[in-house]
Specification:
This protein is α+β, with helices and mostly antiparallel strands. It contains 12 helices and 8 strands. The longest helix has 27 residues. The chain is elongated.
Amino acid sequence: MSERTGTNQYQKLIDDLRRAKESIAAFSGLGRETLASSDLRVVDEQVVGTGRLAKFIDNVALTWYLNRSQLNAAIEEKIEEAGTPVRAPLVEARKVIERRREFAQRRDHFFLPGERLPSGPSVIMLNRGLRITLHEWEPRRVEWLILDDDAAELRGAAKELARALATCTSVCLETGRAFAFAVGEFGPELILPEQWQRRSKLKGNHRYLLKAELPSLKARQRAGPTTRVQADSMEQAIKALEAVYAQFSPAKKVKKATAVAVFVSLFGLSKTSFEKTVWKDAKVPLWRKQGTVPDDREVSVAELRAALVGLNETGEVSFR
């Protein structure tokens, strides 16, 4: 590409594209990540618990996206609602580039297998090799266009914005800001966020939801952000509570107040996190029943702490 002189005639549009790219990186309108197993259980039970993809949750209709393109468009719309135009500058840039094709230089060359083909924002491929024989090792004729410098810079900015949008969608699926469901012959299945990167490479029929459009999960998470460390702690706490339940129940019972005192101390959880997530989601039905407990049937703070320390030492659960 020749040395640039002066200002790009499309500079304002390029600035709009770059501003849109920056807004995507900073966008937080899709909520915080959803990685806690308790939250993912809620999604799994409410969306596919009946063996079918739910149409309503709490009398609110769900908006299903039938492919990645629809999900991308929905995320674009959320970003635009925050006040930064995304689609308009992309559409305008594509129109300009299409017009500049008329003035582009046309090139062609014979390339041997393994030779690197032309690339970069100034290159528009017309074909990647029309073979003139049936033999794979024969040279192939490649044809492409070379855009002028101004159009090439504009195309580069547009491609960066398009990549940022695609990356945003992937990050949403990997962090539980959006959910993917595999639809197969045995029914739908929630693809866990941590599995998306691997599962997305496999062919399959997928449907998508935005976390921000799940009313029950939004209400559940109003208490504030949950970090990955906190999510792991809650998951371990649920596992530990179910383990001591199996150890003591039905002969003895842990009171909720006793559990709060011990678990908050050992697992570094807040009282609210324990009560609203761990105590609620753990499978300890007999302990959640109301009623007085005779002293000889009550698990003391010391007994509960000792049981949890034992589980930690054997590696069944871990806490800080």
